[in-house]
Specification:
228 residues, alpha+beta, three-stranded antiparallel beta sheet, 6 helices, 26% strand, cyanate hydratase activity, Cyanate_lyase_C_sf, lyase, DNA binding
């Protein structure tokens, strides 16, 4: 992990040098690539992945960018952050703003959408500069995330060692009994679902102690990070 961190630091340093040498801002590069300015910054911090479709646009915007760095930007990054960032006044103030307004934001999301959250994967972020009514500069920070509702978890497994035939699984309002667990009966795994996003595989077999062994594994939906 330390070697990976060192390699990433070197790549980020080279990317930032290429940007500085170009004389362009994140906003200018964003305009030429069709991305948000924050996503461009994330690319140069190796916090986001450059898509093959956008790579030619970035190459055109920064022709001095070495090909090996461009290829590196197209690799899935290890997204992380330095905990010491909170010491920077800008980052600290952003964190303070989210914490201070967070409870109210959550309640409004619940009122407008229901019981759920804003995604930080299917998510767009941008920073804009505007003039206030007093003529002074103001920062407009936009968080645009997909709404993700919580789902009712409908899979339940009941075990009764004294009467294994009573073992059932309940999902989506239906009760499905398993066959009697008399050794050496081979049970077919049952596929149920917490929701459309989280299917569960339930395997039942006799345990070494003479009881019933239940194994549950989950198949999680992959949410790819979109280009911003």
């Amino acid at each position: 992990m330390e070697a990976q961190s060192t390699s990433r630091t070197a790549v980020v340093s080279s990317l930032n040098a290429a940007k500085r040498n170009s004389g362009k801002t994140y906003g200018q590069i964003a305009a030429e690539t069709g991305l948000t300015n924050v996503y461009v910054a994330q690319l140069f911090k190796r916090q986001a992945q450059l898509s093959p479709e956008t790579a030619p646009k970035l190459r055109s915007a920064l022709p001095q960018l070495p090909e090996e760095l461009l290829q590196e930007m197209m690799q899935p990054p290890c997204r992380s952050y330095d905990p010491n960032l909170i010491q920077d006044p800008t980052v600290y103030r952003l964190n303070e703003a989210v914490m201070h307004f967070g409870e109210s934001i959550k309640e409004i999301i619940n009122e407008e959408f229901g019981d759920g959250i804003m995604s930080a994967i299917d998510f767009y972020c941008s920073v804009d500069k505007v003039k206030g009514v007093d003529g002074k500069d103001r920062v407009v920070l936009t968080f645009d995330g997909k709404y993700l509702p919580y789902t009712e978890q409908g899979v339940r497994v009941y075990e009764n060692d004294s009467n294994p035939t009573n073992l059932v699984t309940s999902y989506d309002g239906f009760i499905v009994p398993f066959a009697p667990l008399t050794p050496p009966l081979q049970l077919t795994p049952v596929f149920a679902s917490f929701s459309d996003d989280i299917p569960a595989k339930i395997s039942v077999s006799p345990s070494n102690s003479g009881g019933t062994s239940v194994s549950v594994s989950f198949l999680l939906t992959h949410f790819p990070t979109p280009q911003r």
